Each structure stands twice: as C-alpha cells, then as structure tokens.
Amino acid sequence: NLRLSDARAKSTVQYILSKGISKEQISGKGMGETEPKVDCKEACSEEQHAENRRSEFLIVKK
User: Fold this and answer.
1) Which pLDDT tens digit goes with each residue over 14-62?
2) Angle, CA of 50, 52 and 58, to the nearest 5°
3) What does each C-alpha distance from 56 to 15, 19, 30, 36 come to in angstroms?
4) CB–CB of 31/21 below 8 Å?
5) Distance (Å, whole) CA 59 – CA 17
6) d(Cα 61, Cα 38) in Å, to the nearest integer?
7) For residue 44, what pLDDT is reported?
8) First-to-last CA distance in the chain?
9) Phi then psi for 34, rounded to 5 degrees?
C-alpha cells in the first residue's frame, strides 16, 4: 500500500508540474495506511477504501 500511495503522490505531482507549477513549489509524499482519512481497521467498505485513496493539497501563501 505504501508503494501504491507513493506512486499516486508522484503521479499527482507530475500532473501539477505539467500545468506549469514550479517544482520548487510542490512536493508529494505517499502515506500508505499510516494516515487514513477513514480508520475502519479491517472492515472497510469499498467507499471507505476510496476515501483513503486520495491526494491532499496544502496551499500556502508566500
């Protein structure tokens, strides 16, 4: 799961870079199962799994 999460983060970063954002302005990190949005242990529904497969952005003002 960590590898998949990291690949998803890198893909998201590449997409943002393709839109003209400077690489100094963005970074990505896969979290795997370490920071789930929905902590449902072993009994996640498919919808809950989908919520945990996400990319989050923090926009900061310089």
Assistant:
1) 999 999 988 888 888 888 888 888 888 778 888 888 888 888 877 777 6
2) 120
3) 14, 17, 10, 12
4) no
5) 15
6) 29
7) 84
8) 34
9) -75, -25
CB neighbours (10 Å) of residue 51? Answer: 13
Helix/strand/coil (H, E, C) string of 7-58? HHHHHHHHHHHHCCCCHHHCCCCCCCCCCCCCCCCCCCCHHHHHHHCCCCCC
Cβ proximity of 16 and 2 under 8 Å:
no
Rounded to the nearest angstrom, the gap between the alpha carbon of residue 23 and the centroid of all alpha carbons in its chain is 17
Predicted local distance difference test score (pLDDT) of residue 40? 81
What is the C-alpha separation between 39 and 27, in angstroms, rounded?
25
Structure tokens at 50: 């989908």
